[in-house]
């Protein structure tokens, strides 16, 4: 009597997931509307990492927060977001992508309202951390829904072009909207603005995307989630301590040792777990590995760039919040245009080549910006480099996102979405910590020699912009040197 060989449980789940996902796809017209709403939610997530920058000086005055405490308004969000994204991706694969997406939006909206009503620094930082946790649920689930909605390579490439463009535009638009809202209605509205948009998302998604079922099972890898989040917090804390206490201070050394130890624990846990948070085998897909490294470096340059631009324009050039925000319009416009044409460039020149060139363009704009003097004029010193930066960012976001999810099956779509978002947020947290420390050390050194505050600050920011350019060039080299194993992946 012959028997039919059965699929391994994990493979069977993935196959069933792909089949079920295909049967639940909405009609062609509805899925593009669904993409618009998913992209709107992603816009809020990325926006919230940058919109606060312009409002920080006002927040500091009203809530009596020091400069170091203000940095944590950004860091609390990015740490919670980046540290929990992997868990969010696995929860989405296990409990259903639409279900987890909606739960994440609810948490994000409630935390945004709490941040707007914050009457103390502690309440604001706690709300920001909860915001990050909500974003960690909705972001990977949204990207997984996108991959299910657009299974055909051509349609998926166009959808990912929209997705990557929205992510880049959200980062640039945050600076503009932060200035407008802070000047018009107060800093609280940089958080309140999320509430009506989030409600719109919650009201429309159930009508555009059918209810999904669990696509994975097993025990959640909580030890992996705790260890990777702890390692990230310890690493960012180490850089912060380096700036304030010195490299050889006991606190700095303790945090460095803790970061290394927790990273080692995470790797061991993932190798032994039955259902690991991050199956390390996923990185055998070279497209996924290279795409995530590219997004890590892109996040590092982007978060540090927008933080520094906001402070540079207000503290050094004397712009008010609204003017500082308006000066970001050319950068945002370049992002919009390039995000729309990036898929055409990919089809003509290939994914890897387009991404590598995008990094080179981004690096050239950052290096150009590093030459801006303490009395820089917008038209003469800032307009040109910010336009070039917008072109590089727009193309790099689209292509890095597309590369990071290439060749991933339906059962791990949430994981892939979590990974690429995690890479961006971890890169942002580490990039801001490292480059801001570099800028602070340069500024302090010049102040000790008797340089004026504007000159010292300007020189510090120049070092930050130059360091970000070095990271972008590193991304160009990595993407250009490492070959993808699949011609199909290289072509997309």
From TrEMBL:
Database matches in CDD domains: MFS_MMR_MDR_like
Region of interest (Disordered), residue spans: 1-25
Compositional bias ranges of the Low complexity kind: 14-24
Alphabetized InterPro entries for the sequence: MFS, MFS_dom, MFS_trans_sf
Signal peptide start-end: none
Main localisation: membrane
A molecular-function term among this protein's GO annotations: transmembrane transporter activity
Cell location: Cell membrane
Annotated keywords: Cell membrane, Membrane, Transmembrane, Transmembrane helix, Transport
Domain of life: Bacteria
Domain Major facilitator superfamily (MFS) profile: 34-487
SUPFAM superfamilies (UniProt xref): MFS general substrate transporter
A GO CC annotation given for this chain: plasma membrane
Membrane spanning residue stretches: 32-56, 68-88, 100-119, 125-147, 159-181, 187-210, 222-241, 247-269, 290-317, 329-347, 354-371, 383-406, 418-441, 461-482
UniProt topology in membrane: Multi-pass membrane protein
Name of the protein in its database record: EmrB/QacA subfamily drug resistance transporter
Organism listed in the record: Salinibacterium amurskyense
Source lineage: Bacteria, Bacillati, Actinomycetota, Actinomycetes, Micrococcales
């Amino acid at each position: 009597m012959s028997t039919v060989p059965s699929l391994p449980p994990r493979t069977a789940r993935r196959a069933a997931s792909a089949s079920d996902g295909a049967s639940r796809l909405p009609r062609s017209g509805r899925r593009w509307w669904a993409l618009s709403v998913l992209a709107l939610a992603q816009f809020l997530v990325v926006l919230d990492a940058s919109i606060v920058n312009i409002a920080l000086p006002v927040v500091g005055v009203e809530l009596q927060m020091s400069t170091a405490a203000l940095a944590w308004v950004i860091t609390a969000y990015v740490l919670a977001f980046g540290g929990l994204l992997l868990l969010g991706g696995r929860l989405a694969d296990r409990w259903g992508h639409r279900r987890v997406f909606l739960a994440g939006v609810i948490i994000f909206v409630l935390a945004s309202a709490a941040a707007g009503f914050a009457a103390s620094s502690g309440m604001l930082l706690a709300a920001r951390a909860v915001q990050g946790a909500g974003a960690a649920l909705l972001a990977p689930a949204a990207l997984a829904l996108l991959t299910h909605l657009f299974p055909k390579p051509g349609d998926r490439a166009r959808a990912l072009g929209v997705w990557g463009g929205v992510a880049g535009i959200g980062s640039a638009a945050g600076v503009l909207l932060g200035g407008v809202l802070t000047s018009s209605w107060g800093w609280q509205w940089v958080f309140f603005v999320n509430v009506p948009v989030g409600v719109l998302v919650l009201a429309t998604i159930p009508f555009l995307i059918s209810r999904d079922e669990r696509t994975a099972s097993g025990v959640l890898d909580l030890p992996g989630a705790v260890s990777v989040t702890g390692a990230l917090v310890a690493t960012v804390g180490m850089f912060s301590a380096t700036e304030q206490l010195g490299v050889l201070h006991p606190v700095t050394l303790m945090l460095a040792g803790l970061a290394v130890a927790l990273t080692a624990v995470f790797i061991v846990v993932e190798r032994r777990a039955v259902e690991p948070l991050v199956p390390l085998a996923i990185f055998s897909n070279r497209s996924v590995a290279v795409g995530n490294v590219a997004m890590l470096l892109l996040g590092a340059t982007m978060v540090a760039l927008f933080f520094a631009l906001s402070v540079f324009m207000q503290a050094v050039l004397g712009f008010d919040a609204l003017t500082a925000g308006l000066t970001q319009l050319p950068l945002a416009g370049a992002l919009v245009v390039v995000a729309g044409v990036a898929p055409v460039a990919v089809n003509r020149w290939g994914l890897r080549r387009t991404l590598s060139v995008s990094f080179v363009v981004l690096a050239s704009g950052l290096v150009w910006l590093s030459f801006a003097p303490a009395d820089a004029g917008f038209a003469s010193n800032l307009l040109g480099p910010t336009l070039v930066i917008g072109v590089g960012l727009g193309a790099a976001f689209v292509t890095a996102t597309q590369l990071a999810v290439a060749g991933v099956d339906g059962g791990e779509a949430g994981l892939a979405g979590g990974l690429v978002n995690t890479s961006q947020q971890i890169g942002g947290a580490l990039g801001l910590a490292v480059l801001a420390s570099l800028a602070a050390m340069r500024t302090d050194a010049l102040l000790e020699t008797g340089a004026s505050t504007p000159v010292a600050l300007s020189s510090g920011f120049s070092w930050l912009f130059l360091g970000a350019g070095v990271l972008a060039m590193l991304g160009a080299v990595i993407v250009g040197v490492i070959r993808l194993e699949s011609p199909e992946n290289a072509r997309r």
